[in-house]
Structure formats: C-alpha cells, structure tokens
Amino acid sequence: MKNIIINNGFGITEAVNITNGKENLSSLQAVRSVYQVLGTLAKFPQLLLQPTMNLSEDDFIHPFHQMVFVAIKDMVCKDNAIKRITHIDIDDFLSVNDELYELWKQNNGLYYMKNAIESSNSSAFKIHYRQVKKYTLMRQFASSGVDITSLFEYYETDLKKFTESKDKFNSLALDEVEQQVIELGKENEELKQQLTYKQMEIDSQIDMLMKQKRELNKLKGKLA
N or C terminus: which one in the chain shows less Cβ crowding within 10 Å? Predict the structure, then answer.
C-alpha cells in the first residue's frame, strides 16, 4: 500500500491510499468538492429541502464527512425554517453524543467547518454537487465488480499516472460518467440485484412515510 499526501490548496490535506488491488475505493472521492458541499449546505441549509436535491450519507466515504452531513440534515429536518448553520451549531449538536463528538474533535471539526462555511460559494454548488455524485456512481459500480478503470485508474500506484487519470476523469460531466458506467455495468448481475434491493428499500420507506402522513392528517382533522 502507498499513502500519498496531496495538499489540495484549500485548507485540506488529502491522504490517498493507493494499493495494487481494485477493492480499495478510498481514492474514489472528491475531497475538495465534499468540503465545498458541506460548507454550502451549512451556509444555505434550505438547499436540502429542494426536490432536486439527492444527497445521502452514501455520497460521503469518510466517516467524518458522513457525520457532518447527517448532522446538518438532522438540524434541517428538526427546523425546516432554519436559514443558516454555523460550525458552533454543529459542535453543540454533536456534543450530546460522546462517540460522535470524539470523531468531530479528532478531525478538528470546528476549524474544518468554520473554514468550509467561510470559503463556500453557492454559485459553484452545482459543480461540486455533480462532482460528488460522479464519485458516488464510480464507487457503486466498482464495489459491484464493474471494471471502471477505463474512466479512472483509481488504483494506479504511479503518482504521475494516477494524477493524470484523475484529472482526465474530473473533466468529465456527470451525464458522461453515468452513460459510460451504465454501459460498463450492463452485464453485471450483482449490480442489477443491488439496484433491485435498493429500489425495494426506497419503496418501503415511501410506504412508511405515506402511512405516517395519513396518520398525521387524520390527527389534524380530529383537532380541527
């Protein structure tokens, strides 16, 4: 295994673990875009309420990023009118859970989110959002056994070749990546099965939410 430390020039040092095996997906993440997305969502939390927003915990590979996203999402769910979330708000929110708060402190969460919020740019949000979704697609297909190295040689051990391949992939639009990985995964039965299970899971969640909505409407009717 090789650990390559890359300074991205925006307040984050990216540690990329490169192995000779395709099972390692740690390099399939857009660290800079994750930084921008989390900062923008905290600065403009109403973005999470937009119908076109399709972000989930699975779009973040690092446990720290996942935790911060879930914290922001939970705060929005508890208060749909919230206009801004600060790094202090997130710190307070996580402080009630010892395990999560330790992860927050280990990753210098206060400093990270303070800078992420300050440097976030709402006009560039769509660019970073699409970049994050591109890497999510790549991880989904790679973890199902689809060979995606024609798009990005993510396990390349030579730093120069790895960087060239990543730069080439980063220049692709989301719809281009989607088209190409779908073509690569057409014969992959494991991927098809995973998508079927995911769809069943989503359908189950929708049914549960619709049931809760009917019950709430019923209660509102009785209170009227």
Answer: C
- Give this prediction's pTM: 0.74
Sign of CA dihedral 111, 112, 113, 116: positive
What DSSP designation does 158 have? Answer: S
User: Of 57, 126, 68, whose CA–CA distance to 101 is shortest?
Assistant: 68
Task: Count other C-beta atoms under 10 Å from residue 61's C-beta.
Answer: 18
Instruction: Region of 185 please: left (phi>0), alpha (psi -120 to 50) or beta.
Output: alpha
**pLDDT tens-digit map of 140-152:** 888 888 888 888 8
How far separated are the first and last CA of the chain, in Å rounded?
65
Relative orientation angle of helices 174-184 and 125-143, to the nearest 10 degrees: 10
Contact of 28 with 138, CB cutoff 8 Å:
yes
